[in-house]
Amino acid sequence: MKQVDKIKKLEGLSYFDRNAISQYIEVKPNSFSQNINRWINKGILIQLKKGFYVTSKYYEVNKNNKTYIEFIANRLRMPSYLSLEYVLQKYSMLSESVFAVTSITVKTGRTYRNDLGNFVYRNIKKDLFSGFDITEKDGFIIKEATKVKALFDWLYLRLIRVQDINADFLRSFRLNLELLKKKDIEEFTDYCIKAGIRKYVVLADIVKKVWKEE
């Protein structure tokens, strides 16, 4: 059986790494990378990041599947969960357009660009790596921040180097805070307290103030 024919055994996988390829194809170590690059150039494999692939056949079937893209976002950089602009847009919390799948990770922040789109990862400390739901959609397991945690993550990172936080500064972000409910404000306040930094406790009060005005 030709090597290319053996790759067909990987067509049912949502993603795989170099180890998975080596289980199906016997290639000499010194030519392994060369073979992979050739299959990528021929369009047989799609590289999602270095050492992380999907077959072109699986890609063509799922390239417009939003759930699959979210699933891949969780796995390009682990551990991570969908958050920030991407999730806020789902809840119409942002006035601006979003052009990347954004996530939170405890690892160093990073950006990956591949045929599925742009995937942006921002770092947050371990104590704040929480506030996400784990759900199954169309057979894919996905971790996604709640609306409130996505808002907290977004503001936390936006304001991490800002000393003077006030209501006018918050309003400049044009967030649709009127979409929040009282319980959301309480959840947001809990995250601000958990951050352990005074300015975020102040932020909780400012968010509550602007929310009441709207």
What is the structure about, briefly put?
By secondary structure, this protein is of the alpha+beta class. 45% of the residues lie in helices and 20% in strands. Strand 8 and strand 9 (140-145) form a beta hairpin.
Describe, in plain words, how this protein is organized in 3D.
The protein is of the alpha+beta class and 214 residues long. It folds into two domains: 3-62, Arc Repressor Mutant, subunit A; 66-213, no CATH class. 45% of the residues lie in helices and 20% in strands. It has ten helices and nine strands. The chain has helices at 3-7, 18-24, 29-41, 56-62, 66-76, 84-90, 147-158, 167-171, 182-195, 198-213; strands at 16-17, 45-49, 52-55, 80-82, 101-105, 110-114, 117-123, 132-137, 140-145. The strands form three sheets. The protein has a four-stranded mixed beta sheet with strand order 4-5-7-6, sandwiched between helices. Strand 2 (45-49) and strand 3 form a beta hairpin. Helix 9 packs antiparallel against helix 10. The chain is elongated. The mean pLDDT is 93.
How large a portion of the residues is in β-strands, by DSSP E? 15-25%
What is the helix/strand order? HEHHEEHHEHEEEEEHHHH
Profile the largest sheet. Answer: 4 strands, mixed
Q: How helix-rich are the residues, as a percent range?
A: 40-55%
Q: Which strand order spans the largest sheet, edge to edge or round the barrel?
A: 4-5-7-6
The structural domain count equals 2
Instruction: Kindly provide the radius of gyration, computed on alpha-carbon positions and rounded to a whole number of angstroms.
Output: 21 Å
Structural class: alpha+beta
What value does the average pLDDT take? 93
Unreliably modeled segments = none
End-to-end gap: 67 Å
Shape estimate: elongated
Helical segment tally?
10
What's the total number of strands? Answer: 9
